[in-house]
Design goal:
mainly beta, 4-stranded antiparallel beta sheet, 11 strands, globular
Length: about 120
């Protein structure tokens, strides 16, 4: 499975961005998918996750009510809609999946990672 994240960019505080993650490989729909982020000098942290069928989601407290994760198993895509962005959301965002059958906030569980996409929120 290969993952490719896109959609990052520079946005003002309060603005919105939609990240996309394209997955290759037929096992995509069998696994939960997640988004993590890593700010400069900080550890990579969990942002959001979605179950294989899309029926269950999980979010970090810092993004609840502002971010929405979704997936399209026909197109092999995962999305992260980010609204009301704040400067503290600035980070490189990674999509990840595979290696676990349930959503986990621990990055070590995930076997496949995208290359990351930069999100910068200006104040």
């Amino acid at each position: 499975v290969q993952l490719q994240a896109s959609g990052g960019g520079l946005v003002q505080a309060g603005g919105s961005l939609r990240l996309s993650c394209a997955a290759s490989g037929r096992i995509f729909s069998s696994y939960p998918m997640t988004w993590f982020r890593q700010a400069p000098g900080k550890e990579r942290v969990f942002v959001a996750g979605i179950s294989w069928a899309g029926s269950s989601t999980a979010y970090a407290d810092s993004v609840k009510g502002r971010f929405t994760i979704s997936r399209d198993n026909v197109k092999n895509m995962v999305y992260l809609q980010m609204n009301s962005l704040k400067p503290e959301d600035t980070a490189v965002y990674y999509c990840a999946g595979g290696g676990t059958l349930s959503i986990s906030e621990e990055s070590n569980w995930y076997a496949y990672w995208g290359q990351g996409t930069q999100v910068t929120v200006s104040s």
